[in-house]
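Re: weekly structure request thread

Next one in the queue (414 aa):
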Amino acid sequence: MAQTITTQQGNKQVGDENAIRPFHVNIPESDLTELRRRINATKWPERETVTDQSQGVQLATIQALARYWGTEYDWRKCEARLNALSQFITEIDGLDIHFIHVRSKHENALPLIVTHGWPGSVVEQLKIVDPLTNPTAHGASASDAFHVVIPSLPGYGFSGKPTTTGWGPNRIARAWVVLMKRLGYTKFVAQGGDWGAVITDVMATQAPPELLGIHSNMPGVIPPDIDKAAQSGAPTPLGLSADQTLAYERLKFVYSKGIAYGYQMGLRPQTLYGIADSPVGLAAYFLDHDAWSYALISRVFSGEAAGLTRDDVLDNITLTWLTNTAISGARLYWENKFGFFSVKGVSVPAAVSAFPDELYQTPRNWAEQAYPKLIHYNKLDKGGHFAAWEQPQLFSEEVRAGFRSLRNVIAAAA
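Done, posted below.
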């Protein structure tokens, strides 16, 4: 399965490792035909022996997904949305990195790099590109405009697949700084959720002089003793506030029942041949990210509107299938040496958006402890783990608000 890359420069020549090559997606029709054949040839197991989701993705849900995917779903619509944006490839540290780069028409727009997570791709961020680059069309001020850069993580989507070890969050964070500087941005801000949150936190701990501040919708704020207790399944520690207690109970559930995929990929990512060979196997694995996201997504396939559409969900899964990046993406868990949710030691200005259906809703005082230069905190009443994808308007408003004070600082210093 291959994607077509068209470049104005033609084929990359020796000595142009820093070149930025325009990128265009054009999946061969034969790949889409083969995908549908495989979906429709799925060998199904019997249904679960319970009436809830406690055994995993329910048979009725995944069969409804497969029926739609194998008959009605149209990948070309997603391809057209991607190709409507400016996409590029550039080589960083020996690896091709794919990225979307959309500059705002507004003067003094703030450069922003947004990093996706797993099981994800740049598809997660497509809905926020226009609100952030063109805020006046979405009820916001021109002074809140961003130049937006959205890279595909190494091993994900249209980026290259690492052939050696070492591409963990540290190296990715450094590569993102190289990317932004290569694009001519001497000052920028960074945003992330899921892996993007970890990478953005790590970038902030590296504190490159170009990085003005960060925004996270899955902030690493859990104190070490609380994190250790949650991982062990210990009873709720004494002395926690109501918000902290709720966060602890959610985190304990996540560690015990919510991230089996993370343990599997962290230990033995190469073993997951099934999700590289079966599109329905891949879809089921991606749907089962966490209990709250699964509840949202499963409703979509039973006919309810729930922030995402069936096409939203399948665009992301299909991109992973067509690029054959299920295993290369899984290796990031094996490479990672950081706690997913723990305090990293960030000292740069940081903004936090606490969505209620995130794996845990961040309490304000934990955010203040984890980010000594907290410049924005907001506890929202809706939205979950895939906030940019599920609630693009709210998410965009949060990003604007989160970085607004940094613009004022820059303007005052100019």
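Strands lie at 20-22, 87-92, 95-102, 110-115, 146-151, 188-192, 211-216, 350-354, 374-379. The mean pLDDT is 93.
Next request, please.
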